[in-house]
Amino acid sequence: MFVYGVSSNIKNLRDASIEFVSDLFYRIFKEMYESIPKYDLVPETTAEKWFKEMLLQEYSKHAAEQSPLADMVMKSLGGKKISSLPQRK
Known about the structure:
Elements: H1 10-34, H2 46-66, H3 68-78, H4 80-83
Helix pairs in contact: 1-2, 1-3
InterPro entries: Flagellar_prot_FlgJ_N (IPR019301)
Pfam families: Rod-binding (PF10135)
Protein name: Flagellar protein FlgJ N-terminal domain-containing protein
């Protein structure tokens, strides 16, 4: 599978796979957060909304870096060349 804008360099493939998985995790975390009932007793400010968005992005980035899903995506993008690499611990 060829991905435009990503060379076959292992670091670039790793970064692209982490970014892809991070976006997936962000969408999941955001849906989970939005499923919590909201109350209007204390209204949420714009700054709090921005902070929560950035916090969810950082959570998802950290989760993607630790996830074996990023390794699977990297192997599927890199083919045989990367599938022979040793697994992360």
